[in-house]
Amino acid sequence: DIQMTQSPSSLSASVGDRVTITCRASQSISSYLNWYQQKPGKAPKLLIYAASSLQSGVPSRFSGSGSGTDFTLTISSLQPEDFATYYCQQSYSTLGAFGGGTKVEIK
Amino acid sequence: EVQLVQSGAEVKKPGESLKISCKGSGYSFTSYWIGWVRQMPGKGLEWMGIIYPGDSDTRYSPSFQGQVTISADKSISTAYLQWSSLKASDTAMYYCARRDETLGWGWDYWGQGTLVTVSS
User: Fold this and answer.
1) Which chain B residues touch A49 with a CB distance below 8 Å?
2) Cβ atoms < 10 Å from Cβ of A96
3) Which of A16, A34, A43, A67 has its CA 20 to 30 A from that of B12?
4) CA distance B116 to B40
5) Mean pLDDT of chain B
6) What is the reported pLDDT for A107?
7) A-B contacts at Cβ under 8 angstroms
8) What residues have CB less than 8 Å from A86, skipping those under 6 apart?
9) Which candidate in A6, A23, A95, A98 is best for mutational testing of the B interface (most B CBs within 10 A)?
10) Percent share of chain A, pLDDT over 70
């Protein structure tokens, strides 16, 4: 099974900060990497698919990069509505695992 | 508008059976995989299994194989997740989601979640 490791598990940041979250796969997954945002009590929301493609309707301050085993989600200027938990997920395999999540909290 | 609408919250006792549902609308239900995700209280997301309603091809995560049954009724555009004998450890939020090949197999639409509480 392909394991997904996210770091950090949590971070504190201020509005306007640039935030970077990393995700590492235990083996190469090409660009089959997705990022989701989840707010408390809500379903996950797809932000980025295929490592770097922005899902329709998602603000351009979100971006993704990487291929192979190492990936990054960047929020260029953190907004109040961005405080949430973020998950990476590999779609290289049929039931592609999620990372453990990164909780972005207000500093 | 694409929507996945899940059945309401359930409170059950250990040993009871349960079937929850996920109804798709606004798209061709038989053309997309539907998956089920478990989220235990305060924890992350875990895939349980997926089904292709077009031909009922079903795959299970090893952790959930034999523990749950996933099915679909394409005549009413509805997928199901069922348990024959619930345990307290099945207490969780359960989400269904749609998988889109054109989005790198990303999961683009999600149900609102069904909270299952198992307690004596």
Assistant:
1) 103-104, 106, 108
2) 24
3) A43
4) 10
5) 97
6) 87
7) 69
8) A6, A21, A35, A36, A37, A38, A47, A73, A101, A102, A104
9) A95
10) 100
